[in-house]
Design goal:
The complex is a heterotrimer of chains A (316), B (218) and C (490).
Chain A (H helix, E strand, L loop, with lengths): L2 H33 L9 H11 L11 H18 L18 H22 L2 H32 L4 H8 L9 H17 L18 H5 L4 H26 L10 H28 L8 H20 L1
Chain B lengths: L2 H24 L3 H26 L2 H29 L11 H20 L12 H18 L3 H21 L6 H29 L12
Helix pairs in contact in B: 1-2, 1-5, 1-6, 2-3, 2-6, 3-6, 3-7, 4-5, 5-6, 6-7
Chain C lengths: L1 H19 L5 H29 L2 E3 L3 E3 L1 H31 L7 H20 L3 H19 L5 H36 L9 H6 L6 H19 L7 H8 L2 H30 L1 H25 L3 H22 L1 H33 L10 H4 L1 H15 L5 H16 L2 H26 L14 H19 L3 H15 L1
Antiparallel strand pairs in C: 1-2
Classes of the chains: A mainly alpha (316), B mainly alpha (218), C mainly alpha (490).
């Protein structure tokens, strides 16, 4: 297939992730509300919030440098580019001419987005921004290597770090072909995704209480369209992580060709997997309390350890 | 069931046993540790059933059943009963930080796999990865006992440690003789009962955790 | 006929223990206790003479008596009789002082007999699984006995004891499973008696050395915990010092020897599978650590029973050293030391119990003039102490000399040098401690009552054996020990 076509498909998939990101957040919030016996805002609320923010003006701290204004754009851009790496509907079985889909690049871009956001939070000079940034980086320190190890553990079997390739190969195997390291890696990822998505028990997206903020603390100084960009980046990031689980462990139903039937099946599979994992996030969020921050390394340590063991077992 | 299938399933169950063990190690609450050790015993029972189906050994079915009844239901129930009875604080107090414990755990698991990989053809006598997982569980159980203060957490560590041994015992060439397994389980139950009674007696006489007593030294 | 004796031996104390649960009369309980123990000793001697005359006896592939187990069997029987005779007097005192409630008496006696029964199974087991089950059985029964008084200290010691030895013994089970796996692998499938020691030893040369090595390490740590080998001995001084006196005597005299027998069984297998160097090296290491670790604690100890507890650690270390030095002399010396230490340590514990009762304290700094208070007991205490310290003409001198000789013969000069230095230090420390207790003038508060007949009888029985084995070696014992040595050396 042509290079241009590949790029087009990747962009289309990224667009899908960006567009549906807020919907997943809306779904989790609705689910959470229902589990708490509340009516809750409807599914489309995150879109309305974004729309509202985009129309507002920007207020900026006096101490902020011009870089501060670029931060939201950079963060969103890094996230969107990382979304293009993700096989969503379509996993090609032939050799890919462009390295669009490299897992290392994907994780690096997500890390870059986190880094840029943290730098921006320092730049504004607010106390909470700095605190949130330092906390977020601490969490990142534990989550990122673990995610890397999970990806490597899977990549060792596939012999490639290309996510599309991995997904394509694994989707040809039965679900029972899971080996012991896969189970460990899956467990690690289930521990890690709440952290990566900025959710309970590691972070609480709904709070602006100073002591409990991680990610929100970093966004505190932003406003208007900038805040909208960062919020969209957060929604997208969450969906990317959800999709990473699906692509690594449950790549069933992905389209290999371009026929409408295949794509329809792939879309349905994508919806179903996202629904399941979003439900998981929502249920975890409603059934656990947020951990005290110094307990977080303990919790994430479990994920890190499982990821490490998964990789170790694969190599040994 | 084909031997390859059994090996794969035993490997998978071994991974689940490891995961439950790590949850016990990382958990900050006693109840979570107890539920994890119960889940571990359920996986152990399933492993027994898998091996029974694979080898056609009727004894293993019995052992799997006993394992689930005793180790997944009765012993956790005993632990929970004791916890409720003494109304103790349910937070686990680690002696060394949990993150350090987890680092130790990683080293132990690696060591077990390395040790087992160093063995020759005799490894075939044990199905799949049961040997390294068993060694790891046994040592990690000791790690739980060494790194926690409370009497009941020490019991949880002990049970987890024994689960590791049972796992290997099942996977070793069609399992140990039934009569021996039953004797071993009987000992485990009796030991657990005696420990439970001791915990209750100390709580009722001096109102402290038995593992906190430190009057005998030197 | 003889094979049924093997079944009867553990069944007798079990049955008596169960009967005791129905009896409330203290006098009748005492009679049952002494009678039962005597029957056990009789059975042990009967089995011993059978084995001596006609070689090893096996019962249904589960129990088996060979010369090696006979050594431990007779020791258990002898100590059972001596302690039960001593218990008669001890129990009267306990009841009089209100330490023991009359209505709980029967549980105590029943547990002691259960304890003896499990020890008998341990020494008679051929099936390594049965060996393990019985070994854990001894832990459970004796842990209850250690905490029997329900004191804070007793319960603490009992908890430490049960939790440490249970986890230790789990390691033993792991080692057993691994050796069993190696055996079935070598046989090419599960065959009858695949778990039996006699079967596995016979094919020990074809076992995979790698897995047996791992298995032996597990067993060494596991049963080593139970035997009180340092560095996994932490529970021993607590449990042995807090237990009721007769139980202390049984724990220190007999039980840790049973655990040693477990190690010996696997040592024999490992010798065949991996060559002698590996397991002997491990035994040597554990033995040396035990001797070295115990020494400072013995020197600074003020609690009489704890002193004896740490002393057990040291002597178990000496036995392990003898096995580690290897060779005929080393193993013979180690086995002789098993008997000698068992008898002597039981004796000293019984005397220590009496002394503690008289002074109302365990602190040796507050005990003076025991020799004046109790001439018999004081004399026996001094004899026991000199024997424990390794002075001639007592039996321990002989066995320690053999262990030393084996060490020199095997060229382990450094180990021998360390061993000798520790012996000298311990000799000085022990004699200093006991000398303080025995001589001087007793406090006014000390109990000056006449010495009770029954405990003295039990102690004298042990003292006679102790002295006898020091000055002469009966031909029968020599024969059995020689053959037991051959069994260990394969």
């Amino acid at each position: 297939m042509k290079v241009a076509a590949h790029i087009a498909v990747a962009l289309a998939q990224a667009g899908l992730l960006v567009l549906l990101g807020p919907l997943v957040t809306g779904f989790v919030q609705k689910l959470k509300a229902r589990l708490q016996c509340r009516q809750g805002a409807d599914l489309w609320q995150p879109y309305r919030d974004l729309w509202k923010l985009l129309r507002k003006g920007t207020v900026q701290s006096d101490t902020a440098s011009p870089f501060f204004q670029v931060v939201p754009v950079l963060a969103l851009a890094a996230t969107v580019v990382s979304a293009t790496m993700m096989p969503v509907l379509w996993a090609p079985t032939d050799i890919v001419p462009v390295p669009l889909g490299d897992a290392i690049l994907l994780l690096a871009l997500l890390a870059l987005a986190r880094f840029v956001t943290a730098i921006g939070a320092f730049d504004a000079g607010g106390a909470f921004g700095g605190m949130g940034a330092s906390r977020e980086m601490t969490v990142g320190l534990l989550v990122e290597p673990a995610l890397m190890m999970v990806v490597f553990s899977i990549a060792v079997v596939g012999g490639t770090t290309d996510l599309g390739d991995i997904a394509a190969r694994r989707s040809t195997l039965a679900a029972l072909s899971w080996q012991a390291p896969d189970l460990l890696a899956l467990f690690a990822l289930l521990v890690l995704i709440p952290a990566e998505a900025g959710r309970i028990p590691v972070d609480n997206p709904d709070t602006h209480l100073e002591l409990t903020m991680l990610h929100e603390g970093m966004l505190l100084e932003h406003s208007g369209p900038g805040l909208a960009c960062l919020a969209l980046a957060t929604h997208t990031r969450q969906l990317i992580v959800i999709n990473l689980v699906a692509a690594l462990f449950l790549p069933v139903g992905m389209a290999h060709g371009m026929s409408p039937v295949e794509l329809a099946v792939a879309l349905a599979a994508f919806a179903a997997k996202t629904l399941v994992l979003a439900t998981f996030l929502g249920v975890v969020e409603s059934s656990y309390a947020k951990l005290r921050f110094f307990r977080v390394p303990q919790f994430l340590g479990l994920g890190l350890l499982c990821a490490f063991l998964s990789l170790a077992l694969r190599i040994l | 069931m084909s031997p390859e299938m059994a090996t794969r399933l035993i490997d998978d169950l071994g991974a689940l046993l490891l995961v439950t063990m790590l949850i016990i190690l990382a958990s900050g609450q006693l109840f979570r540790a107890i539920y994890a050790v119960a889940a571990q015993a359920v996986f152990l029972g399933i492993a027994g059933a898998v091996l029974a189906a694979a080898t056609g050994n009727v004894d293993l079915w019995v052992i799997a059943g006993i394992t689930i009844v005793i180790k997944a239901v009765a012993l956790p129930w005993l632990l929970i009963w004791v916890v409720k009875r003494i109304q103790m604080c349910r937070e686990i107090e680690p002696v060394i930080p949990i993150s350090v414990t987890l680092a130790f755990a990683a080293a132990i698991v690696m060591l077990s796999f390395h040790l087992s990989a160093s063995l020759g053809p005799v490894r075939q006598a044990v199905t799949g990865n049961a040997l390294p997982v068993g060694i790891a569980l046994t040592l990690l159980g000791v790690l739980v006992m060494a790194s926690r203060k409370k009497a009941l957490t020490q019991m949880v560590g002990l049970f987890a440690s024994e689960n590791g041994i049972f796992f290997v015992a099942m996977a070793v060439s069609q399992g140990m003789p039934l009569i021996i397994e039953i004797g071993v389980i009987l000992d485990v139950v009796l030991g657990a009962l005696v420990m439970g009674i001791m915990v209750l007696r100390v709580r009722s006489t001096v109102d402290t955790d038995i593992a906190d007593l430190e009057t005998l030294k030197g | 006929m003889t094979s049924s004796l093997l079944w009867i031996a553990p069944l007798v104390p079990t049955a008596i223990g169960l009967c005791m649960l129905l009896v409330r009369n203290p006098r009748l309980l005492g009679v049952l206790d002494v009678g039962g123990s005597t029957v056990v000793l009789g059975l042990a001697l009967a089995i011993a003479s059978q084995v001596d005359a006609a070689g090893p006896v096996s019962a249904a592939g589960i129990l088996r008596a060979d010369e090696l187990s006979v050594v431990f069997l007779v020791l258990v029987g002898l100590l059972a009789v001596a302690t039960s005779v001593a218990t008669v007097g001890w129990m009267r005192q306990e009841l009089a002082q209100g330490e023991m409630r009359a209505d709980r008496l029967r549980y105590y006696y029943a547990l002691v007999h259960g304890f003896i029964a499990t020890m008998l199974v341990t020494v008679l087991a051929d099936n390594l699984g049965v060996l393990w089950i019985a070994m854990e059985g001894t832990t459970i029964t004796s842990a209850v006995l250690v905490g029997f008084h329900g004191h804070k200290h007793g319960l603490e010691a009992a908890w430490k004891y049960i939790i440490v030895t249970t986890i230790g013994i789990s390691f033993g089970l792991f080692g057993t499973v691994l050796v069993y796996g190696a055996a079935t692998h070598a046989q090419g499938g599960v065959q009858a008696g695949a778990m039996n020691w006699s079967t596995i030893v016979a094919l020990s040369h074809s076992l995979d050395p790698g897995i047996v090595r791992i298995g032996f390490i597990f067993v060494m740590v596991g049963y080593g915990t139970k035997a009180g080998l340092a560095p996994v001995h932490m529970w021993l001084p607590d449990a042995h010092s807090q237990a009721p006196t007769p139980v202390s005597a049984l724990l220190s005299g007999a039980l840790i020897k049973c655990a040693l027998l477990g190690i010996l069984r696997f040592h024999t297998i490992a010798r065949g599978a991996c060559g002698p160097a590996f397991s002997e090296g491990l035994l040597l290491l554990f033995g040396l650590i035990s001797v070295v670790v115990a020494t400072p604690f013995i020197l600074v100890q003020h609690d009489l029973k704890r002193l004896l507890g740490y002393h057990s650690v040291e002597h178990v270390g000496i036995i392990a050293l003898g096995l580690g030095f290897g060779g005929r002399i080393g193993v013979f010396g180690a086995l002789l030391h098993v008997i000698n230490h068992g008898v002597t340590k039981a004796l000293t514990f019984l005397i220590a119990g009496d002394a503690i009762n008289r002074y109302g304290t365990r602190d040796m700094r507050k005990m003076r003039g025991y020799l004046g208070l109790a001439p018999w007991g004081g004399t026996l205490l001094l004899m026991g102490a000199f024997s424990l310290a390794g002075a001639p003409p007592f039996s321990i001198f002989i066995s320690e000399l053999m262990v030393l000789r084996a060490g020199i013969g095997a060229g382990h000069y450094v180990a021998v040098a360390i061993f000798l230095v520790m012996m000298i230090v311990i000799f000085a420390g022990l004699i200093h401690h006991v000398g303080q207790v025995a001589f001087g003038v007793a406090d006014q508060t000390a109990d000056r009552g006449r010495e009770a007949r029954w405990p003295l009888l039990g102690m004298l029985l042990l003292a006679v054996v102790m002295v006898l084995l020091g000055v002469c070696m009966p031909a029968g014992i020599d024969r059995v020990l020689t053959r037991a040595t051959e069994i260990v050396l394969g």
